[in-house]
Structure of Protein tyrosine phosphatase:
Amino acid sequence: MNLLFVCSRNLWRSPTAEAIYKNRQGITAKSAGTEPSAKTKVNAKLIEWADVVFAMEKKHKQRLVQKFPLETSHKKIVVLEIPDDYRYMDEELIESITTSVSPYLKGL
């Protein structure tokens, strides 16, 4: 299963999620950001690659749908509701991500 995690600048939240899931059996994880200053910018190819897109906040989902209407029209996009209050690999962030994402990974 291909998972794409999206936040604003691809600095803390989405790279943390990628790090959590990238070495799990049956999962390939990538991360990207919606802002022009993002370390890795989200693009159509990444969205098409993903089986599920996890957006950290509603605004990220809105930006994806607005900028990539064709690619997102039949794509499952889950809003995790994780605010930009954490640093990379923060313990609370890891717990919040795993708690929010795990229901979507049942059976893996």
About this structure: The chain has a mean pLDDT of 96. The helical segments are 13-21, 44-49, 58-67, 69-72, 91-101. The chain is about 35% helix and 20% strand.
